[in-house]
Design goal:
Number of helices: 6
Largest sheet: 2 strands, antiparallel
Strand content: 5-15%
Shape: rod-shaped
Oligomer: single chain
Structural class: mainly alpha
Radius of gyration: 25 Å
Distance between the termini: 18 Å
Length: about 180
């Protein structure tokens, strides 16, 4: 029988080169799971189903409304902060919607006249499509920023410290 003694170090006790090695080896520590779930859940909560995204070269976010554009815009305005891009996008959509209804209404701005329904529907579909594209772009940016943070040096170090990981002198994560 042999006994082997290994000296382990907290991250803060490592040399700068060992810290850098540890950070490089753990670059995916915060993204090796479905890190985007909370963003998907937020979208679902406001009536948007995200069906896929790419934050790399293709740069897209696909999805559709669970209910309709107005429902989603109103949920965003009631649940997202006024400084959030999604709030600004929703507010613009709702203002444009009100203008569209007024344009084809009987003067009170609330009811579209029967003879204007076709034109209204055509323009409303275009407005809703543009809102969907814009809100999905907002969510792509949110996902991209979240990924950038989770893979940043600061976030990796935060995870290392929060989980009290220990390392060998050269910065290798302890596997005991």
């Amino acid at each position: 029988m042999k006994t082997k003694t290994i000296t382990l170090y907290d991250f803060k006790e490592l040399s700068e080169s060992a810290k850098q090695k540890a950070i490089e080896k753990l670059y995916d520590i915060n993204i090796d799971y479905e890190w985007y779930d909370s963003t998907y859940e937020d979208a679902k909560n406001i009536g948007l189903k995200i069906t896929g995204f790419d934050i790399d070269r293709a740069r897209y976010c696909n999805g559709n409304f669970i209910k309709d554009a107005n429902y989603t815009a109103n949920k965003i305005k009631s649940e997202h902060g006024v400084n959030c891009e999604t709030y600004k996008t929703a507010d613009t959509f709702l203002q444009n919607w009100d203008k569209l209804v007024a344009k084809y209404s009987d003067g009170d701005g609330e009811k579209v006249l029967p003879e204007n329904e076709y034109k209204f529907d055509t323009e409303a579909d275009e407005l809703e499509d543009e809102f969907l594209k814009s809100i999905l772009e907002d969510y792509r940016i949110i996902l991209s920023k979240e990924y950038d943070y989770l893979t940043s040096k600061a976030a990796i170090i935060e995870t290392i410290n929060a989980n009290e990981y220990t390392f060998t002198e050269d910065g290798t994560l302890e596997n005991i």
